[in-house]
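Progress narrative, Year 2. Work on Pirin from Actinocatenispora rupis advanced from sequence curation to structure prediction during this period.
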Amino acid sequence: MSNLDTRPDEVVCGGRRAVPAEPVHETLPGREVLLGESTVVRRLLPTLGRRLVGAWCFLDHYGPDDIADAAGMQVPPHPHTGLQTVSWLLDGEVLHRDSLGSLATIRPGELGLMTAGAAIAHSEESPPVHPALLHGTQLWVALPDADRHVRPAFEHHPDLPVLTERGLSATVLLGTLAGATSPGTTYTPLVGADLTLAARAATRLPLEPDFEYAVLSAAGAAEIDGAPLALGALMYLGTGRTELPIRTDAAARLLLLGGEPFAEQIVMWWNFVARSHDEIAAARAEWADGGRFGTVHGYHGERLPAPALPATQLKPRGRTR
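Result:
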């Protein structure tokens, strides 16, 4: 998925200095962004207050939207470098195409994982015949310096490990949770899990004390370690936890994100993750000139033009604003 801001900020984030060494409860504000022609998303990372959770550096939550009589998601071909994209649906279908020639329809409970590495381009759209509802998340994972120039790749995993206990079903979409490991390729220690909770559920999830965590409420509300989490909110939880108590009054759907704090500083702008302003500028120029990103075949429409670069060089500001 693309960052379609016409004037995106260029920010530096990463490093361990701003990672709290104890559990916290921070509710992070999101902002509405128009994605493509018709889809409005809530951007929760990066946001005021925090830019990273482990290597997770971008989180959009969209829907549920009624697209029965609409085209649905229409995101034209656009480029990526230095990151992985994670497509996770709760309702609906998304058709993925990329410059490797990949073609896959992502459905709820299936992992669409694209490793951009050195360079890739892709498009995302609702199929011509599609379900009435569209609801999901799009996430990015920053690649560490040693791996950020790997060859691009796309993975589609329809079968993922599911943990069940009374009142809880947890699908591990990336990384490892409670001994269950996703088949998706990772480059840093992290976890992503979709938690479906029944009404009046009370459970405790085992966590890694060296990881930092955050929880998104995608449907319903919950109580996280005694703190209320409202629908659509993202709660940052810090580090130092060995377990996470969760309880609900009504049924809820949560997304747990976590990972070892990302020690490197990264530069994010538009759809690129790099290490300097000059790298960002070079990637933008190559997309504009039709360079290393390749061609997405089969998408009926023009590719996405790159916005103008900011007039000034970035100023490093760390993990938090």
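Residues 277-288 form the longest helix (12 residues). The chain has a mean pLDDT of 91.
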